[in-house]
Amino acid sequence: MNVQEFQQRLFELAEQHGFHDMEIYFEREEKFGCALFKGEIDSYETSEVAGAAFRGLFNGKMGYAFTEKLDEDSLQFLVENAKENSQFIEEEIQEDIFSGSEVYHEGSFHSSELAKVTIPEKIALFKEIENHIYEYDERVTGTDYFILESAESERFIMNSKGLSLKGKQNYIGMYISVVVKQGEETKTGTYIKMTRDFSSFVPKEIAKYAVEEALSQLNAQSAESKRYPVLLRNDAAASLLQTFSPIFSAENAQKGQSLLKDKVGEVIAAEELQIVDDPFLEDGLFSRTFDSEGVATVKKEIVKNGKLITLLHNRKTAEKAGLETTGNAYKSSYKGSLTVSPTNLYVIPSNKGFEELIASIREGIIVTDLAGLHSGADFVSGNFSLAANGYFVKEGKIQNAVKQMTIAGNFYDVLNNIEGIGSDLEFSMNFVAPGYIGSPTLLIKELAVTVE
Amino acid sequence: MLSKSVIEDVLTAALATGGDFSEVFVEDRYTNNLTLQGGKIENSLSGRDFGIGIRVFKGLNSVYTYTTDVTKEGLLKAARNAAHAISGETIIQPVPLVKEIITCAHPIAIHPRETEKIRKVNVMKKAYEIAKNYHSSIQQVLVRYLDEEQNVLIANSEGKFVEDKRVRGRMAIQSIASDGVQIQPGFYGPGAHKGFEFFENLNLEHYAAEASRIAVTMLSAEPCPSGKFPVIIDNEFGGVIFHEACGHGLEATAVAKDNSVFAGRIGEKVASEVVTYIDDGTLENEWGSITIDDEGEKARKNVLIENGILKGYLIDKFNGRRMGMPSTGSGRRQSYRFAPTSRMTNTFIAEGESTPEEIISNTEHGIYTKYMGGGSVTPATGDYNFAVMEAYLVKDGKIGKPLKGATLVGNGAETLQLVDMVGNNLGHGAGMCGSLSGSIPVNVGQPMIRVSEMTVGGSKEVE
Q: Into which family does the record put it (chain B) (predicted)?
């Protein structure tokens, strides 16, 4: 059965069973992935998957079910299970089925150029990067991982209130980790990038970046464990912001899981800080013209001059708060239930260069990489204690790499202790929470640093 | 699920460019996921996953493709996509399929798909009540319920053609206790390869109360001291350390590429002689049990370490090629979206002779860990780091005051050599194990054991 036919039959059957408002959310994704190891293709994978989620109101309660097979059995399965599931929902304020926004902004997040790139072309480019990596420095001993992935996906929302929306996007991503050895010391350097612009991959530069990242960590010295001014390099700052981005969700706030609960309109950060949520970012991985409820998305300020302007809402959280939705309803896939997520959320860069920020530090630490974001950070309290790599700075100059560090602090304090914002916006590739999250380099007044 | 002739066509198409082995994995899975928070059902989600995975080998190259498009055209396209990654002339034709009839080794009494959801909700609410009412300091209780029926069909170019039905259920109870100053969690997550009878017969009075008891106990715990101590690790989920630090090192995924400290050491003494380490997928109705693996091989009992001597590895078909060794019935995967690889089922340290009382009374000054929390391991080295959920000080052969913030740090291969006492109270604990082929149900297990010396990291408070 094709999607249209399936949707029609599904709505008919659901209506017979007593559902009044109904929605089908359909997604299809094609993917290619491969890994290289020393010139050989280590793994090679292609896929094409699709699935449909049904959501409907039965006696005023929303029931959910999904399927990956569009057949007779699944029609029955979806309707019967969604009906049964709806009966246990005890919350007073319910999700609803949305009839549509007045205006949907234009936006194309599918690159036809990228769609034309063939698998052999992708592999050839990837092999070229690998060659450059081994040529760049004799201390390179191998790669920890060397993975290429590309995907093309489309999604539809159709509902019984006449809404019918379609979106399409694609991307290509690289995950590279280079291992270097010098004496007894082994270090890794990573390059991770997801984009729609295939021509932005320049093999020689990627190789240089990854190897230099690893080499710069060699000759790591110890340092005194104490509180230091910390310069969070753009990618590390973005990772930290990603980890704590759930605090901007009104859903979390309403559940008592964000300390920003009653802070809208108040100062929550240093005055220099501006954060926006921009669903139309050209190369944004979470770019979209409509959210998972079918609401038109909008670009909005989240933090302006340090003041919290709004939390992120879907229709249900907005109704609870007596507000309008911000178009941030989110489903991880047709298998997920409805929640709230940023789209492309980032700190607006200022005009200070990375070197200029370093020059302002008398004694401090630069953090280039954070690990343990899954377990070492608690977004409810804001506390974090994370493994970090980076350099020691004295009198405005980088002195040396520092042995494995732990940096600890509280994210709410970090927001208030921002003393400098760089010009180098970068996006996080640590998807510990949904959303495409970016930040330039941030200078933090102080954090507790423990060195091994 | 699919006709034999379609499968044969797919297996043939996959070999068109010179592959020497092709395989088809069809999956039709029904799941129910329910979450109960604060006494109310927060989510109730039902789903049906349906897809097919096609794998082709040529020597030591492996290609995988998967799709939800199970029309004949869709499947042949997927097979051609896979074959496309290999170049050459057809060298073999698939052997005609002969259906193999198996009996499920794990009997199911009440099929969850035919069970009214209200019965599931009732069990969850009962668990909630027990956990919530355990003590006045219990602030929050989260109960999660999962059941699934996974139907699979596995066929390959060697003539294998077999179907299996796997029914599983798990309930996870998380309690949070607070005294106004600090918050402490407690957790218990029993599961089984069983139908709904598992939930109805589950001793909720024990499991739900234990989750709360752990949380409440930890409120009055003192910070754990740091240093080297003899450590007593209790049974059931205590086995997670050996699962992570040794079990993964015995998987062919690590051994075949020589990324394991156990590679090439069969017949050598790798552990103290009181240690016998077993992976047994045949244990009736256990959470990690299987009747056949995801390559269609029968589950079996694999003795990995016997009285300290390394006896074998966990091997899947593909890594078996590199190692020149046959499959051990260990090829597993999360779903059709993953190519299978060597994985554990129910892995445990076999029972010894000491009673738990003997182990404790023979320990003058040490740490007793009753329940383990999460942790991580660097596979290449076996270095691990685990949080302990519930720990106690042992003094003069007696269990003393509770300790919080304890972590166990060490190296898997070294720890195996330092096990000096093994108890007679073998127990298994359910968990989910994540690796190359996704997240799969496994049991970890052991009786109470003692490690003569382990590094214990205390809770250094961040100022």
A: Belongs to the peptidase U62 family.
Give B-chain residues touching A409 at CB under 8 angstroms.
462
Question: Is A68's CB within 8 Å of B48's CB?
Answer: yes
Residues A345 and A395 in one domain: yes
Which of A62, A81, A378, A414 is the best mutation test for B, with the most CBs of B within 10 A?
A81
Interface test with B, best of A44, A58, A70, A72 (most B CBs within 10 A): A44
Residue B461: phi and psi, rounded to 5, are: -70, 140
The pTM of this model reads: 0.91
CATH number at residue A177: 3.30.2290.10
In a domain, A100, yes or no: no
Local structure of A160: helix, strand or coil: coil
Cα separation, B236 vs B233, whole angstroms: 9
Q: Residue A305: give the domain boundaries.
A: 226-451
Nearest CA in chain B to A73: B48
Q: Which residues of B touch A41 (CB under 8 A)?
A: 61, 85
Q: Cβ–Cβ of B85/A87 closer than 8 Å? A: no
**Judgement on whether residues A176 and A266 belong to the same structural domain of the protein:** no
Provide CB contacts within 8 A for A4, sequence distance 6+. none
Task: List A33's β-bridge partners, or say none.
Answer: A45, A149
CA distance A295 to A105: 11
In this structure, the answer to whether residues A237 and A205 fall within a common structural domain is no
SS3 category, A136: helix
Residues A385 and A434 in one domain: yes
Question: Is A69's CB within 8 Å of B69's CB?
Answer: no
Which amino acid is present at A101? S
Of A84, A385, A448, the CB nearest to B117: A84
Domain B4-219 has what CATH class? alpha beta
Q: How many CB atoms lie within 10 A of CB B224?
A: 23
Q: Do A253 and A315 sit in the same domain of this protein? A: yes
Statement to judge: residues A250 and A386 lie in one domain? yes
Contacts of A408 in chain B (CB under 8 A): 462
Q: Are residues A246 and A364 in the same domain?
A: yes
**Under 8 Å between Cβ of A292 and A331:** yes
Closest partner residue to A47 (CB to CB) among B34, B67, B374 is: B67
Tell me the pairing of strands B98-100 and B160-178.
parallel
Pick from A44, A69, A385: CB nearest B462 = A385
- pLDDT string in tens for chain A (452-residue length): 889 999 999 999 999 999 999 999 999 999 999 999 888 888 899 999 999 999 999 999 999 999 999 999 999 999 999 999 999 988 878 899 999 999 999 888 999 999 999 999 999 999 999 999 999 999 999 888 899 999 999 999 999 999 999 999 999 999 999 999 999 888 889 999 999 999 999 999 999 999 999 999 999 999 998 999 999 999 999 999 999 999 999 999 998 889 999 999 999 999 999 999 999 999 999 999 999 999 999 999 999 999 999 999 999 999 999 999 999 999 999 999 899 999 999 999 999 999 999 999 999 999 999 987 877 788 888 888 888 999 999 999 999 999 888 898 999 999 999 999 999 999 999 889 999 999 999 999 999 998 86
Instruction: Quote the ipTM score.
Output: 0.89
| Phi, psi dihedrals of residue B13, rounded to the nearest 5° | -60, -35
Within a domain: A45: no
Domain edges within chain B: 4-219, 222-457
**Domains contained in chain A, number:** 2
CA distance B148 to A329: 28
Inter-chain contact A68–B51, Cβ cutoff 8 Å? yes
Q: Both A200 and A245 in a single domain?
A: no
Which residue matches tokens 């897809």?
B51
A67 vs B48, B74, B117: nearest CB: B48
Two tokens, residue A59: 């006696």
Whether the CB of A74 is below 8 Å from some CB of chain B: the reply is yes
